[in-house]
Amino acid sequence: MGDAGAVTTADPKLARRMAMFARHGGLRKGDHQIEGINSRLDGLQAAILSVKLRHLPKWTRARQSKAAVHDSMLVRAKGSSTPQRLDGTEHVYHTYSVRHERRDELKSMLSEHGIQTGINYPVALPFLPAYKRLGHVSADFPNAWRNQSGILSLPVYPELAPEQQSRVAQAVIQACEQLI
User: Fold this and answer.
1) Closest by Cα among 93, 102, 143, 144 to 122
2) So where are the chain's domains?
3) CB atoms within 10 A of CB 158
4) In terms of DSSP bridges, do strands 151-154 and 80-81 run parallel, antiparallel, or are they unpaired?
5) N or C: which end of the chain has fewer CB within 10 A?
6) Which 8-state DSSP code applies to residue 24?
């Protein structure tokens, strides 16, 4: 697993902050102004990423299209909610996550139908061991606390065929009916 990735922005302040984040929180050795990561891109990953980057807009549009179909089909999935978007924003749908109070049962039922799902963020950021020292409790971040046990990612990759997507949506709808 590598560190490959990219951030593009026209905002110089954001570019500086992202550069700091990728270098342990500082631009000079020993000058760590924010919490950051040690993210170095090796030559092989850079070569692969440079080829993949030209496809990114097409892949993003395809995921957005798949997400719109999920949105329209999953309105019938009782007890679940689909991703919400703020006006004036654009979502790239790295994941397409639904929320359901009985997430683990929903995941199991979909698995029985051969549908792979994911729990991408099982612990919300404020409750990670790295931040235990801050002493956060569920009441500090009630949405994060509730969502960490309710979010389930569905397939949303660009090559997802319409019949596959329909099969996923129908399985989600049926499972939600059974979970009522």
Assistant:
1) 144
2) 12-53, 56-178
3) 15
4) unpaired
5) N
6) T
| Domain spanning 56-178: CATH superfamily | Aspartate Aminotransferase, domain 1 (3.90.1150.10)
- Read off the pLDDT of residues 137-164 as tens digits, 9 standing for 90 and up: 999 999 999 999 999 999 999 999 999 9
**Residue at 29: amino acid letter:** K
The owner of tokens 């960490």 is: 148
- Distances from the Cα of 153 to the Cα of 1, 85, 91, 156, angstroms: 20, 16, 15, 9
Summarize pLDDT for 9-53 with one digit per residue, the tens: 999 999 998 888 888 778 876 677 778 887 767 788 889 999 999
**Per DSSP, what are the bridge partners of residue 154?**
96
pTM to 2 decimal places: 0.76
